[in-house]
Amino acid sequence: MDIFNLVLLTLHNLTRWAVVVFGVLAIVRGFSGWLGKKPWKKLDNQTGLWYNNLFDIQLLLGIVLFFSRGWQSALLNFGAVAGTSSVRFFAMEHWLLMLIGLILAHVGRVQSKKAHSDVAKHKRAALWFLASFVLLLVAIPWPFMAGYGRPLLRFFGLF
Ligand code: HEM
Q1: Total structural domains in the chain?
Q2: pLDDT tens digit string along 104-131?
């Protein structure tokens, strides 16, 4: 693999953990604020914002990776590769599920901003972010996924 793809893949691998951590934080803050009837704080807003921002960065890295790794040719011949899960996953399932997850995260942020009470803000953030996060977890190529599992950590080819 060339150095460009190695760097991109490493960044995409590591940013995944930042998205996961901020997703968990945003969901936990949402549920604890909703169920505990807590005030909506600046930190609640910022946690959701960073979950969204990091997800956006991951989308950009993913799009560049998609083309630089040549997945568009698999997508164009989708009929031929649809039966091969290892190819189908990156040609279609990974980005499509992630895109839907990203949209749900953005809807969650907009909806929680629009809500009129603090508890409603927490409730909307909790539920939309949770829905988004479920898709994210399903679409990550975890190592145990046969055929297309990827390492939990990657570092510029050193490991
Ligand atoms: C819609 C946005 C996304 C696109 C287009 C995309 C695309 C890709 C592509 C093309 C690959 C490389 C497959 C290969 O080896 O050729 C990849 C790998 C991967 N993606 Fe995404 N991705 C997106 C979003 C995400 C998100 C949001 C996460 C997690 C938060 C994620 C996690 C991963 C992981 C963990 C890998 C494996 C990295 C490795 O091999 O070390 N992706 N993605």
Answers
A1: 1
A2: 999 999 999 999 999 999 999 999 999 9
Range of the domain at 69: 3-139
- For residue 74, being part of any structural domain is answered with yes
Mean of all residue pLDDT scores within the chain: 97
Atom 4 of ligand 1 has which residue's CA nearest to it?
A: 62
In 3-state terms the chain splits into helix, strand, coil percentages (rounded to 5) of: 75, 0, 25
User: Which amino acid, 132?
Assistant: S
Q: Is 72 domain-assigned? A: yes
Residue 119 domain flag? yes
The string of pLDDT tens digits covering residues 65-83 is 999 999 999 999 989 989 9
* Spatial distance between the Cα atoms of 83 and 73, rounded to a whole number of angstroms: 16
Q: Residues with Cβ within 6 A of ligand 1? A: 9, 12-13, 16, 19, 55, 58-59, 62-63, 65-66, 69, 71, 90, 94-95, 98-99, 136, 140-141, 150-151, 154
pTM score: 0.95
